[in-house]
Amino acid sequence: MSGTGHVEGDAVTDTTHRPRAAEVVDRVIIRFAGDSGDGMQLTGDRFTTSSALHGNDLATLPDFPAEIRAPAGTLAGVSAFQVHISDHEITTPGDAPNVLVAMNPAALRSQVGRLATGATIVINTDAFDDRSLAKAGYARDPRGDGSLDAYTVYEVPMTSLTRGAVEPLGVKPRDAERSKNFFALGLISWMYTRPVAPTLEWIQRRFVARPAVAEANAVAFKAGHAFGETAELFAHPVEVQPASLPPGTYTNINGNTALAWGLVAASQLSGRPLFLGSYPITPASDILHELSKHKNFGVRTLQAEDEIAGIGAALGAAYGGNLGVTTTSGPGMALKAETMGLAVNLELPLLIIDIQRGGPSTGLPTKTEQADLLMALYGRHGEAPMPVLAARSPSHCFEVAIEAARIALTWRTPVIVLSDGYLANGTEPWRLPDVDALPDLSVTFATEPNHVGDDGEPSFWPYRRDPETLARDWALPGTPGLMHRIGGLEKEDGSGNISYDPANHELMVRLRARKVAGIAAAIPPVEVQGDVDDADLLVVGWGSTWGAIDGAVDRVRRGGHRVAHVHLTHLNPFPANLGEVLHRYPRVMVPELNLGQLSHQLRAEYLVDARSVSRVRGLPFTASELEQAIIDHLKDNA
Amino acid sequence: MSGTGHVEGDAVTDTTHRPRAAEVVDRVIIRFAGDSGDGMQLTGDRFTTSSALHGNDLATLPDFPAEIRAPAGTLAGVSAFQVHISDHEITTPGDAPNVLVAMNPAALRSQVGRLATGATIVINTDAFDDRSLAKAGYARDPRGDGSLDAYTVYEVPMTSLTRGAVEPLGVKPRDAERSKNFFALGLISWMYTRPVAPTLEWIQRRFVARPAVAEANAVAFKAGHAFGETAELFAHPVEVQPASLPPGTYTNINGNTALAWGLVAASQLSGRPLFLGSYPITPASDILHELSKHKNFGVRTLQAEDEIAGIGAALGAAYGGNLGVTTTSGPGMALKAETMGLAVNLELPLLIIDIQRGGPSTGLPTKTEQADLLMALYGRHGEAPMPVLAARSPSHCFEVAIEAARIALTWRTPVIVLSDGYLANGTEPWRLPDVDALPDLSVTFATEPNHVGDDGEPSFWPYRRDPETLARDWALPGTPGLMHRIGGLEKEDGSGNISYDPANHELMVRLRARKVAGIAAAIPPVEVQGDVDDADLLVVGWGSTWGAIDGAVDRVRRGGHRVAHVHLTHLNPFPANLGEVLHRYPRVMVPELNLGQLSHQLRAEYLVDARSVSRVRGLPFTASELEQAIIDHLKDNA
Amino acid sequence: MTDTLIPVTTRKDWSSDQEVRWCPGCGDYSILAAVQLLMPELGIRREDTVFVSGIGCAARMPYYMNTYGMHTIHGRAPAIATGLALARPDLHVFVVSGDGDALSIGGNHLIHALRRNVNITILLFNNQIYGLTKGQYSPTSETGKVTKSTPFGSLDTPFNPVSVAIGAEATFVARTHDMDRRHMMETIRRAYEHRGASLVEIYQNCNVFNDGAFEGITGKQVRDDMLIPLRHGEPLRFGAQGERGVVIDPQRGACLVDVADVGEGALLVHDETRDDPSVAFMLSRLARGPFEPTPVGVFRDVVRPDYGDGVERQIAGARRDRGPGDLASLLRSGSTWEVG
Amino acid sequence: MTDTLIPVTTRKDWSSDQEVRWCPGCGDYSILAAVQLLMPELGIRREDTVFVSGIGCAARMPYYMNTYGMHTIHGRAPAIATGLALARPDLHVFVVSGDGDALSIGGNHLIHALRRNVNITILLFNNQIYGLTKGQYSPTSETGKVTKSTPFGSLDTPFNPVSVAIGAEATFVARTHDMDRRHMMETIRRAYEHRGASLVEIYQNCNVFNDGAFEGITGKQVRDDMLIPLRHGEPLRFGAQGERGVVIDPQRGACLVDVADVGEGALLVHDETRDDPSVAFMLSRLARGPFEPTPVGVFRDVVRPDYGDGVERQIAGARRDRGPGDLASLLRSGSTWEVG
Ligand SMILES: Cc1ncc(C[n+]2csc(CCOP(=O)(O)OP(=O)(O)O)c2C)c(N)n1
Ligand SMILES: Cc1ncc(C[n+]2csc(CCOP(=O)(O)OP(=O)(O)O)c2C)c(N)n1
Ligand code: SF4
Ligand code: SF4
Ligand SMILES: [Mg+2]
Ligand SMILES: [Mg+2]
Hints:
Helix content of chain A: 25-40%
Oligomer: heterotetramer
Radius of gyration of chain C: 22 Å
Bound molecules: thiamine diphosphate, iron/sulfur cluster, magnesium ion
Structural class of chain C: alpha/beta
């Protein structure tokens, strides 16, 4: 291996060894943890990519604090990255890690609780001085007090080994230490037999601006790899074979990038220029960042003065014929409510994207939650129905963005898309779609008068509707002869003129409701997974819980239970066959990362006794806790 | 009668008559309609007061356009005021008017459709020139084309008679005409034998600043009265005897005033100074106007730069120990959502008052609707539960304001109060409560540390809770030794320090939910009216529909049907016995001025097949349409 | 916007079929007339023109223009117009707002639109009152104003819209009033011709809730002595015989003088194009309210890159450097691998 | 607030037990230190002091003060503090905000708080970047700024917070920076002592996302030549030997000169108390950004009735005229009738 090749004669060892034979396992969950300043996200990210390139299926879960950089060495400052790699299809970043890389005592203390029994812990012993132990709240050194006996602990002086490796390059000690995460990456790459060359090339590309840093990191990486190879500590490397995924071109993608690309795709497919009006907020900001790069697609991004201006500008752009989009998270969603109501009334296409995070109020900005569903459905004054969609996995965000645009453009309606912090930052391999197979979203605009007045004069009626979809006729500014005014006051059916007529108001309220309800006829029916015909329990989920539910249902079915799973992408309107499906099974269980919002909806709409399984911890479900919940539920209701 | 006394020798007639004997009827519904500039609201208001003083039970319904003054003579400019007076208890402004006073063709054309068959129409013929007829959209003069044959029409040249009566005073013709509404008032006062003196005195008080105007109006009023007395047109006056209401002191009050007074009362009862942060919006502005008058009660009112600042200032005042209140309508409610979420998180008492109007968006600003219920319940991101109350009648707003303050102060929680445009402007006689019998709302604040740290140091924990109510300890700024910080990030149970701990977040989310749910134990159970034991149908209502439902249930019961009625004031949490009550009856029907928002809640919470009866016309229900709906419902589901 | 000849139009062509619903005698009528009369002179097409408004009496104006129009929500028109103007550089976007709409709830959107210099023309109808909600005081009402919401008199100092705009980096700021149609037309024309964001404060009489608010300076008989016409390149003089003038006192700011005392030469020569907004700001402070001699006309008109032009430039540049976007290659822009 | 003697306190007494969670090296640390050191000198009680903040790195400050505190929501602190200050005139209310918090989402609340002149002391930590959200440009970032959200460079002209405040009728406006503790303490003390709303812009270094933004003027070695100290009653001079100065050119505004060329006498004598804000505004325009000689200190400090005092006056007056409110008679204030 080129990596080890370079390492021979390296300072860390004087003897050379042959690569040892690797043990083969089907899956492993690794968690990198360190200070916010230690670069754990970068490390985990890179390990993920090389695993992807190696062909594993995988899923990741970054987990970092709300502070930019809390004080070094404190529990508050710990930043972690979990990656699950496997030789078969997996849907979650895994429950209990098999391996923990702990760069300091705080990382160890905050993470050890999550580990699988018998897990491996790799410790950077250089960081275990008394001050650091105290900072982490350790009274005694955990390495000595037996508290880690249940685990296989490897003590590696990563900082000093890194320093030793890079100092020959003339790097100052302080800077030298900065490369220790690359030492860790090298070590873990050896342990899990990841290819070395791609990472080395990546290091060159990534730090091209700072060659000295690039070289230091490369050397540290190689040193770590060599250390695993040479130090006797480790029994042998472990191999996770490539998964047999459907053939195609894959890339590793997170939800925010997939969503941004989906929006670009929707713009291309509809021929409507993309306009994003947004105000930064965690965890949605990266969509703004990503889209602002793609000006060559004609994408216009406006960092507005606040969320209200963000959606306002998007609505103005929509009136002008752009694909108007606004992106935000809970606090921003609350602020956009009034403008959403206007969009409902104007009947213009608009996409409102909510990357949900822990609430209420500022809550837990960097954690995940699903508690904005009822706000999405009802958070506007008056009767202001809006379609609501939710993505189930990082790559699914791409499809959902396109589907949301299809609905918005076809029915001339604002549409809410729900994602969350877990999907936003989590990654998975994505089989790239054939762009030519993507749907045509082109829109036809009014170019001629669509009405003749009593005076025989032809004119344009902005609220004349397509009899089938009830979508209103849409004429763009710039179209000769079709000048018209629209606004937030109730308007007369057809002409769109202001009207305070009671009967007209009732008509318009019901028309808007029927229009949105009618979309159900044009969306796919729900598909039941699992024991379709004879399940004792139907598990209904929505959004990012898909992976965990899917995994849990698999396990209980393997355990001999009969369970079915329905996962909703369309939350308003629901697919036409949902009611029938719900009544098909004796029991319905609804796991959600909130206090039971979807189950509330299902009960109200279908009078089905849907039972809520809810967790509100700022974390995704683990498949095992859901497995347990399902089993308990079957017991209790047997 | 003093009134007629003065009139003898008046210009309008040369002969004198004795007062003719009055026919006695049990109730009558009168509707005054004219141009926005014609002073119909004032006229109706004054007729109402003299009826109140006369001892009738009554209910009123003002109905005016959103424009300040749409062009004179147009349908858009018509302003109407309906009053229902009766010798027995009534609960609505009445369905179909028995009398219409139409000051111009537009008023006639826009209102005639509502009239009861055989109704009386008093027309100001002076206004029926061709231009005015055309403006109103009349091709032919309705007085000639038989379209009014079904009614008893009285044609009175009110403008010229008024001019004739006041010109002797030296008033210019243009100004003279301004008094014509007082002529109409005098005429109707005669027709319904209202006392004259009080109105004359009121005119002097009201126009004390402009004596000339006062005199002109007085003379016009007397002239109208005399005209009724003397002109042969009218058969005889009609008398509606006083109603036998429970003994006490009464005043005629609208919902906004009652609400404002209720807030002042709550402030007095709690010893917490009242702070209102508000931004003007129809139909809520009058609460701001009313409260800004009462500075001698220590009331502080801030007209903020927008709704967000309004609730923000109220929240800041609440943190300082004031009774913080914000008032608004739908569009403003939407804007306040984010700050409400903060208040939920801070667990501070705050009253958010929403005077609902027609939506969505700007909608129908001067019309009534009940479509903000689900927004009140769910319109915030994250799990942010808030108690929600609704008033059922104008005077009930007083009680509800006090109850809302009780809940807010006891449980340290923001509370939403729902009223609507109908309650806000509608009036009814109110039997004044004994102020000494009103509840004590005094609050006890923390003055001592409530916690001892591991270091043995006493300190103050802002999130230490009362074990029973789960209300947190509340220490006011200015209290020595209890300095503490609170904020919108998730906080550690007890200490209130920032915490990202998953288990703590779950605990806090559930604690906040349990606290609000627990209020159910401290509110009155629902009372069932009507056929409590053997009803075939339970009608469940909330808010301003109380009067119409009550009236309708009365009628169908008199018609021999067995029906019960439950009316909700507490919408979150629901009264503890509601579920049991709902399941007690074979059918549940929920009439609402929305698309079925309460019925949605009842179905979700209690899995009861509640059927929605919904109207969304910007108008209150009429008792008769509900009577029909109930009968149909009983038939369909027999 | 096609390049063929612009058809000749008249006021009627720019008037919609909707009946105007303001109170009889409202100053809004004369502003509407001025705008409808100006439009045919601007050499633009009705279909390329959009009026965007918030909520308020003033904000009803778009309904009366036979152009495209959006009557939106309270205070948000500048933000909504920003999106429209950026999405559609080919359109002429006007914003119509009131003093409450623009300076109370909408203050932030207004100052950011001005700072950004998006190509929109903002007409601020300032009647120093909330009209549509029936007469509460506004951020431009004089201190001590007694209204429904301030029965004991208002306590806050009003904004001076021109000062606010200049403090917010505006590139075009002007003032006119509803009693002088010619002046309105000329001033709004200048605002339209300015590339970037322009603000025109229009003193407007609300004869129902704040009648005569500006009579003291706009009344025909007092106008000469109470209005200071701002004319680019000319010394600042006013009064029937131009007997009064404006000088700058380095220690105090702008002051009024009798020309006879100081001589014509000492007067400040008005220059709309000063890059430094200080002198324009000084002029905005000459009157503390519509009861002192008040400058009307263009305070400031400077050239600064229009935000929208910048957006188009960046798009063009990106296309030049990377070619028009290709979806398939975007999806492959991360590291990819094949599964056979 | 009782009237007994104020206990003597030290920085420690004003420091909470919460560990400070800013990035190592952040300028916020030195601002916090300056405030904690100043507090004992103000002769006020901790329990009578409240720090109200919005959201952002800066907004975390209240957690570190051993006083009452509210960490609220993004941009709303001035509005929330307004309610608190009006409800509790006995408290000392400070607002802590960032450039995004105060000037982007919170711009409207800021200018209205200044206009109203509510008695609050606003500290605006200006690091010309969004720190907490990891480095997007802010309304004070220089044009052309390349950030995550503007990879091709920002297009908008930044606000000058001092100009914005002066344009919004502020009665106290000052500027200081995180490199000079004494100057921070002195300036914040002045702001605290001002009755009404006061704004202090504090240049603050965000060493993670916008490192060195102010180094060109606040760095020890350049400071003398790049900072123009505003000293009331003194001619405006700066430079190591005070060799440079400020004069007002009536046609252009404030300009920099060599004292040798014009003579000391020609220099502008700084007067914080000018009622007309024009000269203060001129001074705010001297530097177009932190790369030119920049005035620091108090630009403006004028006496205007404090909004809260007005509220109390109206309440006292109403009580004097009508007596303390009586609920029973309020309910009877309309026309009533008896039913026997
Ligand atoms: C969000 C929201 N808040 C408040 C209102 C009520 N409202 C409508 S117009 C207006 C102010 C009108 O004053 P101004 O902007 O000066 O316009 P004018 O009517 O004087 O022309 C208010 C407070 C509203 N429609 N929406
Ligand atoms: C309503 C809302 N919108 C957006 C955010 C995300 N957010 C938090 S702080 C911040 C801006 C921070 O910049 P600044 O105010 O300059 O403070 P700094 O971090 O630089 O001190 C943003 C956009 C939020 N928390 N709430
Ligand atoms: S209320 Fe005032 S501003 Fe509004 S239309 Fe009437 S006169 Fe004009
Ligand atoms: S991100 Fe910048 S402003 Fe925020 S704490 Fe870090 S250094 Fe300070
Ligand atoms: Mg106005
Ligand atoms: Mg900042």
